[in-house]
TrEMBL record, chain A:
<dbReference type="Pfam" id="PF00005">
    <property type="entry name" value="ABC_tran"/>
</dbReference>
<dbReference type="GO" id="GO:0005524">
    <property type="term" value="F:ATP binding"/>
</dbReference>
<protein>
    <submittedName>
        <fullName>ABC-2 type transport system ATP-binding protein</fullName>
    </submittedName>
</protein>
<dbReference type="InterPro" id="IPR003593">
    <property type="entry name" value="AAA+_ATPase"/>
</dbReference>
<dbReference type="InterPro" id="IPR051782">
    <property type="entry name" value="ABC_Transporter_VariousFunc"/>
</dbReference>
<keyword id="KW-0067">ATP-binding</keyword>
<dbReference type="InterPro" id="IPR003439">
    <property type="entry name" value="ABC_transporter-like_ATP-bd"/>
</dbReference>
<feature type="domain" description="ABC transporter">
    <location>
        <begin position="4"/>
        <end position="229"/>
    </location>
</feature>
<keyword id="KW-0547">Nucleotide-binding</keyword>
From TrEMBL, chain B:
<protein>
    <recommendedName>
        <fullName>ABC-2 type transport system permease protein</fullName>
    </recommendedName>
</protein>
<keyword id="KW-0812">Transmembrane</keyword>
<feature type="transmembrane region" description="Helical">
    <location>
        <begin position="217"/>
        <end position="238"/>
    </location>
</feature>
<feature type="transmembrane region" description="Helical">
    <location>
        <begin position="21"/>
        <end position="42"/>
    </location>
</feature>
<feature type="transmembrane region" description="Helical">
    <location>
        <begin position="103"/>
        <end position="132"/>
    </location>
</feature>
<feature type="transmembrane region" description="Helical">
    <location>
        <begin position="62"/>
        <end position="82"/>
    </location>
</feature>
<feature type="transmembrane region" description="Helical">
    <location>
        <begin position="180"/>
        <end position="197"/>
    </location>
</feature>
<keyword id="KW-1133">Transmembrane helix</keyword>
<feature type="transmembrane region" description="Helical">
    <location>
        <begin position="152"/>
        <end position="173"/>
    </location>
</feature>
Length: 300, 246
């Protein structure tokens, strides 16, 4: 069953299309990573899914219903980001017990355990927490609520590396205990790739690709060697990225070489290396094949 | 109201209890406002003295009007505040729709109006008691000094209706102001203009008098209830399409 179905979804702000003709589906009980550059439309998309924003055009259903202002969708999902707001009079422990009233699957054991583990003072007020601690607290709500659809928008904002690691581990453990649909948007794909099953990559509000993470790992391949050595192999391939280092050239191309071709490339002295998934995403969403280097080399 | 789903009522109920604890500050501010009003009412009593030969007469007037006035102002501010972005966003951290958020606000406003009406009338009784014990001359005259229980209950009832009316007006004005930044300036300006127009042209504000001059309690109830329903419905329609920007 698909939890989210979306076709031709568009969201317009003035003259800018934050989400542009986006079509995809997300299946039940999968962990999907929503990846994209700043301004790619990640947050806008997530807020449309959460029913916060109204779509401008297209179709979107969450649990088979239009999510905007729909109680039946709202009951089944939670949207966690660093701007969750709580009444200033409530202490952290009171916020947790209030949340328990709203979510039928609320897990008090995990909520209290995590609060204690991350050394958050139950009597503390949310607005006095540091950025990282507020993110940690919001994450606890997201985990403990055990909603059928849990959305994390940049959940690790401000968290230090240790807390981020703990968070990813907690997320996975809790998911195994109680599988549900999770969408995680992040800039740090290399940190979360072990967690994800699918990746949805956005570029300029549109879908660049949606793949299982295992396929994304083999999506592209890096070739390095003298330029004339691989000239014959790259006539009809899609170059994602290129970089010149002295007389050695490094290019990243779509990995659709046949086995025999791979052998020939190996024998010609060109080195083939795997490309990390977050690099693939960066190259796919770059505005320019040469990257930032081009800006500096233009005058030469 | 068939456009409100069963689950929406359930969510609104949860939100209502959440808000009762989360916004307990509203009650505290009410008690502070009433305490200040009580002090002013007692200290600000009007005194007139006449002495003829050996006889001197001091007449002191005490009024509970300020108590209720302060409560009305408090009610207006609290209701308008509930429509502000921060308060709306608080709802959307947990399960909520625009409708459930408004419904729970209305329930909260009704509760606040009830508490405000009871406490302001009770504070009026307290003022009488204080005056009784602190004035050295025991002659107290006043047609409203002694309140019979039915009078007190009627007073609470009327006060509740007034507070509900002011809250509903505050809630609607708050909801209108949320539509666009310009309205924050525009709406108060227009209201101020309307009030001064009415005052200069008619010497009174007709749409206030519409309620205050009503002699029949039943008619007053009907007038207030219909106005409150219109105000809340207006606020609901305005906020129902708003996006949650947090």
């Amino acid at each position: 069953m698909n939890v989210i179905e979306c076709s031709g979804l568009t969201k317009v702000y003035g003259s800018r299309k934050a989400v542009n003709d986006l079509s995809f589906t997300i299946a039940e009980n999968k962990i999907t990573g929503l990846i994209g550059r700043n301004g790619a439309g990640k947050t806008t998309l997530l807020k449309i899914i959460a029913g916060y924003y109204r779509k401008s055009a297209g179709k979107i259903t969450v649990f088979s219903k239009n999510p905007f202002n729909n109680i039946q969708v709202a009951e089944k999902l939670i949207f966690v980001d660093d701007r969750m707001s709580f009444p200033p009079a409530l202490a952290l422990s009171e916020i947790l017990s209030s949340a328990a009233a709203f979510y039928p699957h609320w897990n008090k054991r995990i909520a209290d355990g995590l609060l204690n583990y991350f050394q958050l003072e139950p009597k503390e007020k949310h607005q006095y927490l540091s950025k990282g601690m507020a993110s940690t607290f919001n994450m606890i709500i997201g985990l403990a609520s055990r909603c059928p659809l849990t959305i994390y928008d940049e959940p690790t904002t401000g968290m230090d590396a240790a807390v981020r690691k703990d968070f990813y581990r907690a997320l996975l453990k809790d998911y195994i205990e109680q599988p549900r649909t999770i969408i995680l948007s992040s800039h740090l794909l290399n940190e979360i790739e072990d967690l994800l099953e699918d990746v949805l990559l956005l570029r300029g509000g549109s879908k660049e690709l949606q793949l299982p993470i295992a396929e994304l790992k083999h999506y592209a391949v890096g070739l390095s060697g003298r330029e004339e050595a691989f000239a014959e192999f790259i006539n009809d391939v899609d170059i994602l990225h290129q970089k010149q280092m002295g007389n050695v050239k490094y290019i990243v191309v779509r990995n659709n070489f046949s086995e025999s071709l791979q052998k020939r490339i190996g024998m010609s002295g060109v080195e083939m290396t795997p490309v990390a998934t977050d690099d693939v995403c960066v190259y796919l969403t770059a505005g320019n094949k040469g990257g930032i280097d081009d800006v500096f080399h233009r005058s030469e | 109201m068939s456009f409100i789903e069963v689950n929406e009522w359930k969510a609104a109920k949860k939100q209502f209890f959440y808000k009762l604890t989360a916004y307990k500050g509203f009650f505290i501010s009410l008690f502070i406002a009433q305490f200040v009003a009580l002090v002013f009412s007692y200290g600000g009593g009007m005194h007139t003295s006449i002495s003829v030969d050996l006889v001197s007469l001091t007449v002191s007037f005490y009024s509970g009007d300020m108590l209720f006035g302060f409560t009305l102002i408090w009610a207006f501010i609290v209701a308008a505040k509930l429509t502000s972005e921060n308060y709306r966003n608080n709802d959307f951290s947990f399960v909520s729709t625009r409708i459930s958020s408004n419904l729970s606000n209305i329930a909260l406003i009704a509760t606040l109006s009830f508490v405000g009406s009871v406490t302001s009338l009770m504070a009026g009784v307290l003022l009488r008691v204080i005056v009784y014990f602190t004035t050295d001359i025991g002659m107290i005259y006043g047609k409203n000094y002694l309140l019979s229980p039915p009078e007190l209950l009627t007073g609470i009832y009327a006060a509740f209706l007034y507070l509900a009316l002011v809250c509903a007006a505050g809630y609607l004005i708050g909801a209108v102001v949320q539509m666009h930044k310009v309205l924050i300036v525009l709406v108060p300006a227009v209201l101020f203009g309307l009030v001064s127009y009415e005052l200069t042209k008619f010497g009174t504000i007709r749409w206030v008098e519409y309620f205050t001059s009503e002699g029949s309690l039943l008619m007053f109830t009907l007038k207030v209830i219909s106005a409150v329903l219109i105000f809340f419905a207006g606020a609901l329609v305005l906020s129902n399409r708003l996006e949650v920007r947090r």
